Amino acid sequence: MGAIKENSDDEMDEKVKKYLRGEAANLEGLKDKKLKGQLAVREDLYGKSAKTAAKIEKWLLPSEGGYLEAEGIEKTWRIKQESIAREVDILSSRNQYDIVLPELGPYTLDFTSNGRYMAAAGRKGHLAIVDMKTLNLIKEIQVRETVRDVAYLHNELFFAAAQKKYPYIYNRDGTELHCLKEHGAVLRLQFLKNHFLLASINKFGQLRYQDVTMGEMIGNFRTGLGRTDVMQVNPYNGVVALGHSSGTVTMWKPTSAVPLVKMLSHPGPISSLAFHPNGHVMATSGRENKIKIWDLRKFEVIQTLPCHAKTLNFSQKGLLAAGTGSFIQILADFSGSQNYSSYMTHSMAKGYQVGKVVFRPYEDVLGIGHSMGWSSILIPGSGEPNFDSWVANPFETSKQRREKEVHSLLDKLPPETIMLDPTKVGTVRAPPKKEKPTKKEIEAEMEAAIETAKDTDFKKKTKGRNKPSKRATKRREMINRAKRPFLEQRTQEHETSRKKHKLNPETEMPKSLQRFVRQKAT
Amino acid sequence: MKVKVISRSTDEFTRERSQDLQRVFRNFDPTLRSQEKAVEYVRALNAAKLDKIFARPFIGAMDGHRDSIKCMAKNPNYLKAIFSGSDDGDIRLWDMASRRTVCQFPGHQGAVQGLTVSTDGSILVSCGSDCTVRLWNVSDANLADSDNLSDNSAKPQAVYVWKNAFRAVDHQWDGDLFATAGAQVDIWNHNRSQPVNTFDWGSDTTISIRFNPGEPNILATSANDRSITLYDLRMSSPARKVIMRTKTNSIAWNPMEPMNFTAANEDCNCYSYDARKLEEAKCVHKDHVSAVMDIDFSPTGREFVTGSYDRTVRIFQYNGGHSREIYHTKRMQRVFCVKYSCDASYVISGSDDTNLRLWKAKASEQLGVVLPRERKKHEYLEAVKNRYKHLPEVKRIVRHRHLPKPVYKAANLRRTMIEAERRKEQRRKAHSAPGSIVTEPVRKRRIIKEVE
């Protein structure tokens, strides 16, 4: 009984920690008693609300996640999709299929944030929107142009397709709404949900951010690192990461023309990039057939895996899907300590080249876009079982969708809120370290002071007291007074530097001149 | 092998009939939501802006008096009513909802200096410069009847004549004694035509008087000799006195912390004291630019409203050094009396221009019945605005108030004068021997001495 209780206590502690969102503030050093009292009350409230949230989890979260456990000498990575389909109920086995469309080119996929709708784009111009719940094809159009990428905007009504010359925005009915001429020939599109920004990287390596609510171009940057089609958004902080052919990963925000971070990750070109939903873990893969798992807080490699990966994707529960050729490997860290190991594998028919792997949100399903169409396989334990209706609702009605659109527009974040550490909003910024002004700066300051001293107007004295000689002396006096602090500072510095020189002449003088060092009277 | 996959059946997650409510599922996990702080900041900014859009504090003016209004009283049993007395002896009972006079109480020959209502709401006591104290019967039945009367006026239940003109009156919270202030402090009983007791300390007139809400026998008065005196009715002599540099115009006890009171002073500040420790003020509330004439606490004890000679009404936090809100109108002249309504939603000000004005205590509050969802939304917006109110963008919007030009200029002038004084003091200190000049904290600076 005692052991069971301890376990549940540990679990509760972990849950409470999750809801606490960081550490409590340290109130020891505060001298202001009123503020201390107010903050203590508030910290107490945070603790209570975290505990209530942890306790109520039992009732609020009805579903448990999926799992796959091997029995006996069986290994999970040898289990095939057919055997899973046999064990699982009919509704879930419907999620396993292969759609073969050989003529229309490699397919890329994108899911809406609630996992209900999927947009598929074939390279030869085939755009399709599918309702995944009913596996109903809502609309398909043929744009008769190369389509390189497709991305959903904030809901299923709008999606953007990166076509041959420019990206276009389409409606759910297939009507073309906008042609974004400024972007140019785009290779990858990404949508930042909280900010309503459409980010694109084009053939010339130019990164553009466009606000899709007002149509305003927020940022337009030349990366200077050449053509690349590896681009991912970090969902945690809204930072866009690009992987370049030199092996560097650069991270960008819409308000600066210089990347936030430039890290050299791989010796060769980066082939793909993926972010963990918690925002601290990133997986990159290079052409040298290695996958590196990075910790973004310290910018260090946690793990290197010898694995081919042309495409990478993290699931909501932290499973990593890596796809090359016609082989897909799913990696999972079982202990929670970011130690990834093989969980499941899937090989498709020979000749199918995997283009993109995307996990479907809130479902245990992996969508694969390949050269012969697209497929979907079951990966137990990859999706979040309990959704929040106010965040993403797979069973949304149209009224709910409209309400959500309005609320999310009201909460639209300005582009300035994109930063590497999003928890810094509302905190006190550390004062910039004061550096000593350079000589030039000091001289400039002195010149400025002298100028202002020269500019001062003197009172016109009367009754014979306004002699020109007196005026001249007064002016000279003002200029000297302005100069004085700078001269004093200069003499002080000279003295200190001379004193420093004097302090250890023995160590500085070469050996042959030691006899000429002035001895101090002892 | 053991395998389980997420499979959601549509029936569990959607409603059965269209009459049912939609099903809502919650997961409070922070990992599902990204950039929470930025979202909260945007909501705080929008909430601050909406607050300013909906800020319409002025409800209406109650017109009727023919001379400036000097005193007001609220009936603790009847929320809608307020009594007001003016300088021509006219006492009126107003219905705040319709903003009309319900009943008039004529009789005083000179200015009505003080009004108060007994705690059970049955008797209105008024005192004036004509050396009389009049008691009127104002129980509910009477008020209801008086709607039918054609002349809308009432006759006093009793008239007591005494030696000197009276300046203020207040009724005990838990008893049937009331006290008047004038040349000396008199304690009266409803039925006696002469004071039961008299207190006199010092030679100057007492100008305001207030009974303590917690202790029925303690009262505080302020006099023309710049003092605040505390009396205990059970003892025959006055208890304590603190002398300040300037005169206190009015005192109000905090109804939730009855040991604290706040004094509205002539030097444009309000001083909060702990009655047990009068050597130092607990808090100095600075924002007015002219003498503060009247002060009243909210029944929550968390805020108080002040009316001042500079034609503005300000609302302060009970422990805050600066006002949270300022109300002014072009037509409102010198404010002589203010009252906070008993449901903590309204503020009534009586001023020199013969009008009583009704204001909202929270300027952007939605009046009327508020649905539970609306109320929750308002509370959430208030909380998120308070969390981010120190950030520059939000602070700029929340703090912004339009001041009338004379008040703005006077405030600037005061600020420069105080800054100059402070700088001079600093320089004097810097150029004299360390420790020879001691700066007194502001809370103590305005007190001359405390006398037992």
Automatic annotation (TrEMBL), chain A:
<feature type="compositionally biased region" description="Basic and acidic residues">
    <location>
        <begin position="475"/>
        <end position="496"/>
    </location>
</feature>
<dbReference type="InterPro" id="IPR040315">
    <property type="entry name" value="WDR46/Utp7"/>
</dbReference>
<dbReference type="Pfam" id="PF08149">
    <property type="entry name" value="BING4CT"/>
</dbReference>
<feature type="domain" description="BING4 C-terminal">
    <location>
        <begin position="342"/>
        <end position="422"/>
    </location>
</feature>
<feature type="repeat" description="WD">
    <location>
        <begin position="263"/>
        <end position="304"/>
    </location>
</feature>
<dbReference type="InterPro" id="IPR036322">
    <property type="entry name" value="WD40_repeat_dom_sf"/>
</dbReference>
<dbReference type="InterPro" id="IPR012952">
    <property type="entry name" value="BING4_C_dom"/>
</dbReference>
<dbReference type="Pfam" id="PF00400">
    <property type="entry name" value="WD40"/>
</dbReference>
<dbReference type="InterPro" id="IPR015943">
    <property type="entry name" value="WD40/YVTN_repeat-like_dom_sf"/>
</dbReference>
<keyword id="KW-0853">WD repeat</keyword>
<dbReference type="InterPro" id="IPR001680">
    <property type="entry name" value="WD40_rpt"/>
</dbReference>
<feature type="region of interest" description="Disordered">
    <location>
        <begin position="452"/>
        <end position="522"/>
    </location>
</feature>
<keyword id="KW-0539">Nucleus</keyword>
<keyword id="KW-0677">Repeat</keyword>
<feature type="compositionally biased region" description="Basic residues">
    <location>
        <begin position="460"/>
        <end position="474"/>
    </location>
</feature>
<protein>
    <recommendedName>
        <fullName>BING4 C-terminal domain-containing protein</fullName>
    </recommendedName>
</protein>
Automatic annotation (TrEMBL), chain B:
<protein>
    <recommendedName>
        <fullName>DDB1- and CUL4-associated factor 13</fullName>
    </recommendedName>
</protein>
<dbReference type="InterPro" id="IPR001680">
    <property type="entry name" value="WD40_rpt"/>
</dbReference>
<feature type="repeat" description="WD">
    <location>
        <begin position="105"/>
        <end position="146"/>
    </location>
</feature>
<keyword id="KW-0687">Ribonucleoprotein</keyword>
<feature type="repeat" description="WD">
    <location>
        <begin position="328"/>
        <end position="369"/>
    </location>
</feature>
<dbReference type="Pfam" id="PF00400">
    <property type="entry name" value="WD40"/>
</dbReference>
<comment type="similarity">
    <text>Belongs to the WD repeat DCAF13/WDSOF1 family.</text>
</comment>
<dbReference type="Pfam" id="PF04158">
    <property type="entry name" value="Sof1"/>
</dbReference>
<dbReference type="InterPro" id="IPR019775">
    <property type="entry name" value="WD40_repeat_CS"/>
</dbReference>
<dbReference type="InterPro" id="IPR015943">
    <property type="entry name" value="WD40/YVTN_repeat-like_dom_sf"/>
</dbReference>
<keyword id="KW-0677">Repeat</keyword>
<dbReference type="InterPro" id="IPR020472">
    <property type="entry name" value="WD40_PAC1"/>
</dbReference>
<keyword id="KW-0853">WD repeat</keyword>
<feature type="domain" description="Sof1-like protein">
    <location>
        <begin position="361"/>
        <end position="447"/>
    </location>
</feature>
<dbReference type="InterPro" id="IPR007287">
    <property type="entry name" value="Sof1"/>
</dbReference>
<dbReference type="InterPro" id="IPR036322">
    <property type="entry name" value="WD40_repeat_dom_sf"/>
</dbReference>
<feature type="repeat" description="WD">
    <location>
        <begin position="62"/>
        <end position="104"/>
    </location>
</feature>
<dbReference type="InterPro" id="IPR051733">
    <property type="entry name" value="WD_repeat_DCAF13/WDSOF1"/>
</dbReference>
<feature type="repeat" description="WD">
    <location>
        <begin position="285"/>
        <end position="326"/>
    </location>
</feature>
<keyword id="KW-0539">Nucleus</keyword>
